[in-house]
Structure formats: C-alpha cells, structure tokens
C-alpha cells in the first residue's frame, strides 16, 4: 500500500492532491487490518475444513474400491443405501446423544451452581477437581469404566458374591453403559460453560427476587435459570454434537445392540474400506446435526440470550 | 396522579371505598402499622457491625438512617429486609416479630443501591415480578403496574430492557418495582448514590412527592446529610454501629446530642471548656483559653463539668473590629484567614485568639465591603445558638473531623 502511495507521489501530482490520497490509502490499510489478522484462521479453515469437507462430499458420490481406485461420479445412490442400511444406528445416535446430554445437564447444573454460588474461595479448586479426570486419555478413562462395570469385576463381582444382586446382572454392552460413558465423558464440557454463566449472575439480582416475594424455587425458575440460559445453550451444543458422533463409548462399553453411527463410519473406513459409504454416512450425520442445531437455535437461541448474556 | 393510584386502605380519606373492598388481605393490619427494632445487634465474629439498636418508626413516616460508611446503617437495613439475621434482639413489623422470617415472607420491599433490576425482563415484567409471585389477579397486576409506571413517569417504556434505560430511569423502575407491591415498609439503600448531582436533587423531591402520595413508610439509608435533611420527617444519625441521635432534621441540626453529630450533620465550631455557673437563665462555660461563653440554661441540661460548646457557622455574625457588640451576645476577636465566595454566601475561615480556627457563613445581603483576608474582626453569636455536647471518645472525635 505504501508502495502505491510512493508511486503516486513520484508521478508528480500536486501536493494538495497528494495528501488526501495518501490518507485514503492509510484508511484502506486500516480497514484491512482485521482481515489480515484473521488471515491465518481463514487459511486454516480452508485447508483443514473446507478442503476435507469437499473431498468427503465428493468421495461419498464416488464409485470404486481402494484397490482399483475411485472414479468421481454422481453416484448419489450411496446416500440412499446408507440411510436404508444404517438408519437404525443413525436414530440410535441421536437418541443416545439427546438422552446423554440431558443427563449430563442434570448432573452438571447442580455442580456448576454449587461451585458458583457456594464454592467460596475454593471455586478454582472444585473446577480443577472436575477437570482432573480429563487429564487422562479419553480411551483410558473409558476402559477404566469397562473395568469397573465388568460383569465379574471388583464392583459387581463383589456384590454378586455377597448375593446382593443377581448373578445374571450386567450393565456392560447395554445402552445404559454407553449412555453412562457419554455422560461421564461430557460432564466437564457442560460444567464449564454453565459455571461461567452462573458465576456471572449478579447476586444482588438474586437478592432482589427474594425481596419481591420469590421463594427459593421461583427465584431459581424465574431468575437464575433464565439468566444462566446462555450456559445451558452453549453446553448443550458442545456436548450433544460430540455425543452424537461418538464411537468410543459404544465400542468399549457397548455391544452389538448399541452400535452408533460413529461405529458404522469407523467400520466402513477401517474395516470394510468402503470409503464412499463412510463418507456418505458422515455427510448425512453432519447434515442432520446442522438441522438439529438450527431447530434448537430457533427454539431456544433467541436474540435475548445474546442480549443479556453480554 | 393521586386519583389514578389506588391507595393502601390504611391511608386516610383519599382512598376510595372500592379500592378498600378490593383488598381484604390488608384489612387485618390497619390499626397499628410501624417498625420497631429492639436491642438489635449484628456481629460478624468479633466485629460488631450494629450494636444494640432500638428504634421505632411511625407509619407513613419518611425516616432516614444517616451515617458515614461502615457505621452499620446498611446492615441495619439488611436485617429489616431479611437479608441478614440479627445476632441479638428482635425486629417487629406491625407488632409481629419478623427477625427470623426470610425476605420473601416479609411485607417489606427494597430499592437497592445498584437497582438490581432483572436484566432478562423488560420494564413491565420487572415491575410485575412481585405481584406475580404473590399471585395477584392478572387484570389487577396489569392495572397496578400501569398506574405505578405512570406515577414514576415511565409510561411508554414498558417494553424496554434495563440495559436500554438511563441511570435515572433504572432508578425509577427500581422504585416502581418495589412500590407496586404496596409494602408496609419501603427500604431504600442509598438509591440516589449513582446519579449525578442535578438528577439526584430532582429525584429527592420526586421521592418525597411519591412518598406523600402513596403514604407508605420509607426507611432511607444515606451518607449524604443534605439528602437526609431534605427528605426526612425524622432521621437517626449512626456511628460505629450505634445510634447517636434520633429526631426531626431541624432539631438534630440545631441541638446535636453528641460531638459526632455536631461534626457530621453540617459544620460546627466546637470549643472545649468547663461549666462554671449553671444557675439562672444563662449558664456560663469557661473555655480552655479563658474566654467565658454564655449558654441558654436549657441547652446545657445536666451535662458537665467538662463539655464542648458549639456554634454553627451561619449563626455567627462577623463584625468589623471595634464595632460595638449587641447586648448579651457571646463574642471573640479573630483574624480572617481565608474567604470563599459561593454565590449565596461568603464563607470565612478565621483564626481565634489562641490559634483556634473558626468558620462562619454570611449571606450576601448587604452592599457594603466584605471582610478581607488579614482583617481583624469580631465574631458574635446568641447564647440561644450555643449548643453543648459531652466531649466524645477520641475515636468518634477523629471521625467527626474527617
């Protein structure tokens, strides 16, 4: 830009004309700053999101196999095949995801509330304790649950030997194990946004509710809950999206009856090497999640939330 | 305005009979409506924030708790509102001990210093909040909220959110939100503190007008002595968790009971001395520098022998040196050390015989020359204008000079 300014100066235009021109240049330069600062992120998004996304979409309509190679043709029947064969796993994923997210919310909210309102000086310690298990690898944590919940493991094995539960009792490979695993793994991701939202609530406003005849229950319903809505909203998105696409919990804690779409995609890619099927399923999952998020945002994400969250 | 409002039934004539019939819930509380604090104490560990306060506030009264920050006035208000429990003592509302009742059960509403409006609700919903919690009939809520918003001059702002309002408007929403419930008692915790001076003066008069219109008892907490004097029927000056004096503003101002009150409420010239003669209509106090000051006997009471005599700066007459002093006045000679012209008056700081500093205010009535810096002058004042206080403990004295 400064080069252009110099060139113009060299052209010998009148001084009076030159000064405003340069000023305009500087203004353009200033306006460009945010975009320049954003450039790395744009490049990143392009390389690691848009390109793979496009190639995945292309792959989903391709024909061929890994040995002879793929030809990119408009084989959109793959989508119908994917839905026809795996609609059960797709539905199950959304069902597990929704249920697990709700249970996560039910556990995370009281925890976040307690830390924010009653944590006193030790708030960060409590948050750290919530985060602590997450310093261990995701897979290891889940395997640990497999160990804990094993049919003859130290927990159920002991209970069975005492005759407290039936010998045939089991949890592993049921949907409850999978949902439980999802809840466990998503907890911190819900507690944190909730904590931030609840912590931000002005205590004097809570006090005012009490002054205006609101008993603790209606203070919660009418004031604290609506004011923490941004956290509920953000956490829900964060946890729901990860839960629906998850395959590790179903793989480690579940059984054949708890296959989620993530497992199907993984199998298609790495076991059957049916890349078009895997890509088609991924695309469908992505599309459905976007629709779900859109509907969710329409229902709950009113501008108000942004307004008073600010 | 008054016609639109439907007044609490316990208020005399203006209330129309229909309004009375509409609210049987208040019928039982008509005969004796007041606030009584009985030996109320609040301690946080070893720190005593409020120390054995007893106080009665009449119904319909505009009562202020006045004191410097940390004097316990806000804590007292919190306890009446139900946000803090007294360590000892009891609080009676309308004759009923409410000390252990949670705030949402008390027929008391608060206008908070920070307003504490609900940010997620609009003006209408903010004001309707209390009525909805009390399950008032929907139509009645609508009417009462509308009337109340008209009273505080916010008609047309129903759909605004608190964030879209100016400080003064937020303040009025906070007031409407509390008043609409027709509490027996309205607590106001420095509600004008965040407003600029001009708006504050305007709101002082507005508050006073609204209070006389609705007839609800107001308990007002402030550290601003002028604010308290302008609005209150009676006020209590607090210091160090105790009440120093209670009374109508003019009485407290003219006859401060303690050295602290003399210094906090307005300015005072205080001189230490000893009572030398108590008989007759005038008592005499010999100041430590030898000067003898006359005091109306009634104002001495049984204080003494060590006392401090005081006189307000505006009661002092500044005469050129050598001019005869009117009969029966206290007088002393001084040198003008500083003059300040503030429009309606001149304020002088003068140095007395033993280096003691005096202040005097003179209204700018005359056309003649005013005493200038370095001039010798004679100060005189009426014995009736001389008040007497017990010398207070060093701690309070320190505060009063601050």
From TrEMBL, chain A:
CDD domains (UniProt xref): TM_PBP2
Region entry Disordered, spans: 1-22
A cellular component term, taken from the record's GO annotations: plasma membrane
Transmembrane segments: 32-51, 94-115, 127-149, 169-198, 219-241, 277-297
Zinc listed as a keyword: no
Residues covered by the ABC transmembrane type-1 domain: 90-296
Keywords per UniProt: Cell membrane, Membrane, Transmembrane, Transmembrane helix, Transport
PANTHER family, per database record: INNER MEMBRANE ABC TRANSPORTER PERMEASE PROTEIN YDCU-RELATED, INNER MEMBRANE ABC TRANSPORTER PERMEASE PROTEIN YDCU-RELATED-RELATED
Family of the protein in this entry: Belongs to the binding-protein-dependent transport system permease family. CysTW subfamily.
Protein name per UniProt: Spermidine/putrescine transport system permease protein
Annotated source species: Tistlia consotensis USBA 355
UniProtKB/TrEMBL annotation, chain B:
Gene Ontology molecular function terms on file: ABC-type polyamine transporter activity; ATP binding; ATP hydrolysis activity
Reaction catalyzed: ATP + H2O + polyamine-[polyamine-binding protein]Side 1 = ADP + phosphate + polyamineSide 2 + [polyamine-binding protein]Side 1
The protein's Enzyme Commission number: 7.6.2.11
Gene Ontology CC, one term: ATP-binding cassette (ABC) transporter complex
Signal sequence segment: none
Gene Ontology BP annotations: putrescine transport
Stretches assigned to the ABC transporter domain: 35-265
InterPro entries, A to Z: AAA+_ATPase, ABC_SmlMolc_Importer, ABC_transporter-like_ATP-bd, ABC_transporter-like_CS, Mo/tungstate-bd_C_term_dom, P-loop_NTPase, PotA-like, Transp-assoc_OB_typ2
UniProt region (Disordered), positions on chain: 1-30
Record carries keyword Cell membrane: yes
Domain of life (superkingdom): Bacteria
Top enzyme category: translocase
The entry's keywords: ATP-binding, Cell membrane, Membrane, Nucleotide-binding, Translocase, Transport
Subunit structure: The complex is composed of two ATP-binding proteins (PotA), two transmembrane proteins (PotB and PotC) and a solute-binding protein (PotD).
Its biological purpose: Part of the ABC transporter complex PotABCD involved in spermidine/putrescine import. Responsible for energy coupling to the transport system.
Family per similarity comment: Belongs to the ABC transporter superfamily. Spermidine/putrescine importer (TC 3.A.1.11.1) family.
Entry protein name: Spermidine/putrescine import ATP-binding protein PotA
Gene it is expressed from: potA
